[in-house]
């Protein structure tokens, strides 16, 4: 019995000594709220025109944490809620919010003209870019991102809506896909994850201007 109690004492002591060491482990992997897909072989990038006709790729946003969301402007709930959430988080991050980029890829190029897209994303403030490809380009980039979308007939003749994957891909400042955040995760969880990614790639110090 004495040996047993001595074993418990040593075990408790070992646990006590190990606890502060674990708390000081600076190599621990950060805990994300969203789904960590670091190293995924899909969602590697895009090459689509923006509302002005300029083709855009992830390289255009190097140095920023970029969120890519597929949706459409006639979306009644998921799309505006997601973009508003991103806008709120950008604002909550203060100066760091300038290093967060939102990218909205339409899955409804038939109705989402460049003019319509620009007016739509402008509603959510600065820091958003809308992309619109051809029907073929849209299908290709959706496949590359494993995004589902489909046209759903409406009640009125000739009307329709779109069904699509509800969530955003998050890329770090080096253009590597890191997370998939599902619709409904919440602004606080998104802010938490973006802060981790922003901290991993601090902004370069400004060089003094020559006089």
Task: Provide an overview of this structure.
The protein is α+β, with helices and mostly antiparallel strands. The chain has a single domain (37-200), classed as 3-Layer(aba) Sandwich (Glutaredoxin), CATH 3.40.30. It has five helices and ten strands, in the order αββββαβαβαββββα. A six-stranded mixed beta sheet has the order 1-10-9-4-5-6. Strands 2-3 form a two-stranded antiparallel ribbon. The longest helix is centred in the N-terminal third of the chain and has 22 residues, at 2-23. The protein is globular. The N and C termini lie far apart (81 Å). Mean pLDDT is 88; it is low at 1-25.
Brief descriptors of the model:
alpha+beta; 211 residues; Glutaredoxin; 5 helices
Query: What is the oligomeric state here?
Result: single chain
CATH homolog superfamily: Glutaredoxin
- Determine the N-to-C terminus distance: 81 Å
Give the strand line-up of the largest sheet.
1-10-9-4-5-6
- Named CATH topology: Glutaredoxin
Structural class category: alpha+beta
Mean pLDDT: 88
Morphology call: globular
> Which CATH architecture would you pick?
3-Layer(aba) Sandwich
Q: What percentage of residues falls in helices of 4 or more residues? A: 25-40%
Major beta-sheet overview: 6 strands, mixed
Tally of discrete structural domains: 1
**Which percent band covers the strand fraction?**
15-25%
Give unreliable regions as ranges: 1-25
């Amino acid at each position: 019995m004495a040996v047993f109690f001595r074993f418990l004492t040593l075990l408790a002591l070992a646990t006590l000594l190990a606890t502060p060491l674990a708390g000081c482990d600076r190599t621990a992997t950060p805990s994300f709220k969203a789904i960590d897909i670091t190293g995924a072989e899909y969602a590697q990038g895009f090459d689509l025109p923006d509302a002005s006709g300029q083709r855009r790729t992830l390289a255009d946003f190097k140095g920023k944490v970029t969120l890519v969301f597929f949706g459409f402007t006639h979306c009644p709930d998921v799309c505006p809620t997601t973009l508003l959430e991103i806008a709120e988080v950008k604002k909550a991050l203060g100066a760091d919010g300038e290093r967060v980029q939102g990218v909205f890829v339409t899955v409804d190029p038939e109705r989402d003209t460049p003019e319509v897209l620009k007016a739509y994303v402008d509603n959510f403030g600065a820091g958003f870019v809308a992309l619109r490809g051809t029907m073929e380009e849209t299908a290709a980039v959706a496949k590359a991102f494993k995004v589902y979308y489909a046209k759903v007939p409406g009640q009125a003749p000739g009307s329709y809506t779109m069904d699509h994957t509800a969530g955003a891909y998050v890329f770090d400042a080096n253009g590597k896909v890191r997370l998939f955040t599902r619709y409904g995760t919440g602004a606080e969880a998104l802010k938490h994850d973006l802060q981790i990614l922003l901290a991993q790639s601090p902004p370069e110090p400004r060089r003094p201007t020559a006089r």
